[in-house]
Amino acid sequence: MSEFRTEPPWGDYADLVPTEYEIVAEFPSVVWGWECDLYQWILRAPDGELVVGGTSHGSFYVRRGVDAIRTLNNDIEILNSFIEDTQRALRFLS
């Protein structure tokens, strides 16, 4: 089941997104351990640019351009590593 949403209701902490940003989409945040920062958002900034927003320890942040792409690519690397490690653990049990 996908948690990628393109319309409300938005998940936890969406109320931390400043009102000048429009939420376009929401998706789960990749965290190593639990930090209560459950979602990231694709946002339309006041200047019209699409950016990635999220929270870190409850504080809102925005990533633009190359930094946004780098952040999402890093999240994918973390997830791929997690999948590989979990598959290795499964092989130990098989």
Strand content: 25-35%
The total strand number stands at: 4
Overall geometry comes to elongated
What order do the strands of the largest sheet run in, or round the barrel if closed? 1-2-3-4
SSE topology:
Layout: E1 22-28, E2 39-44, E3 50-56, E4 59-63, H1 65-93
Antiparallel strand pairs: 1-2, 2-3, 3-4
Description:
This protein has one domain (14-93). The chain is 31% helix and 27% strand. It has 1 helix and 4 strands. It has one helix spanning 65-93, and strands at 22-28, 39-44, 50-56, 59-63. The protein has a 4-stranded antiparallel β-sheet. A hairpin with a 2-residue loop joins strand 3 (50-56) and strand 4.
Summarize the structure.
With 94 residues, the chain is α+β, with helices and mostly antiparallel strands. Helices cover 31% and strands 27% of the residues. It has one domain.
Summary tags:
alpha+beta; about 90 residues; about 25% strand; single chain
